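<purpose> Linking amino acid order to shape
<body> The protein record starts here
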Amino acid sequence: MVGLQRLPFKRTHTDDVLRQSSRSSSDDPKSADDEEKVTVPTVSKHGAVNNEGKDDGDRSLLEQDEGVTRIEALYLVFGKGWALWGLWLSIGLIFYVYTLSSGTTYTYLSYATSSYLEHTLIGTISVATAIIAAVSKPFLAKLADLTSRPTALALSVLLYTVGYIVVASSTSVNAVAAGEVIYTPGSTGLDFLTGILVADITSLQWRSFVTSALGSTPWLINEFISTYITTGISANTKDGWRWGFGMFAILIPVCITPALAVLFWGDRKAKKLGALSVAASGYVQRKHLEGRDDEASPSKLHLALHYWRLIDGFGLCLIGTVFAMLLIPFTLSTTASKGFKNPSLIAMFCVGGVLLIVLVLWEWKFASHPIMPKRIINRSLVCSIIIDFFYYLSGYISGTYFLSWVYIIKNDWTLSGYTYYSYTETLTLCFFGIIAGAIQRVTHRYKYLQLSGLCIRAIGQGIQLYAIKNPSTVVLVMAQVVSCLGGSFSVVGSQVAVQASVPHQDMALAAAILSLWTGIGGGIGSAISASVWNDNVPANLAKYIGDTHNATEIADIFGSIIIARDTEPHDLVVKAYGDSIRPLFIAALVLSIVPILAGFYTTNFYLGTQHNAIEAKEVKILSADETTEEAIREKARRAEEALREKDAKVAVEEKAN
């Protein structure tokens, strides 16, 4: 795997930026171990200043997609006052209702599949949804850049709602899987796009703390509320889980409507005042500035094809198809006749292999707008991808069936006790994620905090392996707490490193690419876990309780964790499941070492008042005087003049050549 060496990547928009430390002129930090001290000129509010000190705030907006320009135009609308508070409160509401949903519906899936005696399909569903989640993020990122953040968010809400309606009304396990497939890009969009919104309007020094505080605090509250909801609807009964999915098909759109209203209002006001006239990539705006308002607009088909190329729709479809063809067979091998010799599985492997070659050739030679353009590739991005890829790979290998294993072996726990334990991972990640953000705010660095976290997580994986021999409550809790403490330090580090390493124009895409590869890592981990689980559990059950249970009974035990939990002799069932999951825990422990090696090669960016470490854009709240209609119109006028001057210079250069 490349990336463990000091990679000589350089970006087209800046050659030596990795040697520079992005900081405001008022800061005087200590030098980092792998970067030189430089001085960045003073910047204007929400603008950019070049090295001569001239204001390039308007001109910087001319080179970016309309969606990015729209969110920066909102800076002019949301100054100090009720509008700013309304924006933050609406974002907070999104985080709250999303976490309440995720904190309950996650536990319902096991009960939903078990109600159809198809618990083993969790592995297949996990692989499919992991691939869909990974592929949907680049699509949503480009959609948010090309249109607007609230437009992409509205699409996510629609998919989320439809997906959960399908799950709640399902009459077969196939309908449950179909609903999860529809729901996944919607859920992914809610999580990803709200994170991008926060990153849009925060500086590097505050980004991890604000993102963690908004995204994690609701989890700390909702975990306890979620337990009462899960118990109150009797989620472990045959149909109790349906109410769990159905209630959020109603709550999510209702609670997110205020956020969409605030964002669309700000977008409309910015456009009305002319703030969006700086969107040079917008076809209508450029026609207006060039005096071509009467020119016929492109057909809908032409625009559809144009945007399809911009989002590299063909490449995204190829990625999803390739990894589905290569990974899903591992989860189906046990139930398919003849196992891996089944003609359908062989065909899936062959098609996946051929399409993988096609994907590489397409992205390398033919894609006009590749998913991972060369301009954003840099050392920190590559190393962060390696870190999070193996983090998720090892995490899904050991974690896909971890809670199912705990539910079976700890039959002395009550349902509420098990539910509380299932929240240990989330609570630890969220609490220490906030702590990690605060540490970054104080130290203005992330690298060594991330390295420490990766080492701690490896220790946690070792405790998890030890828990097979000693599955006491203390050991099980410590395994989760230690692993997640380290994981929280790593996750926030990767996020801020990737966002700092690219300009605002490419931030959403870079974050999506990180999520794409981590999602693929998770998908591979789920496939490996499902294959090992589906092979080992039936064999070990037959080994330990085959003398007292026939093949049909063993199949029922394997198909439902509820039945397995109550099966006697229980000590032999525990041994069977322990032997089955041990190889997964060992593999996860070994793989958790790789991210530590990659962590040494990230760039230790200074986290200052800039939006990123590439551009000299300083993030500040604008005063009331700077957000008046007159001030906004003047800024738009200057932007239009800058665009006309630029076009005139380009025309002169073309004639000269």
About this structure: DSSP finds 24 helices and no strands in the chain.
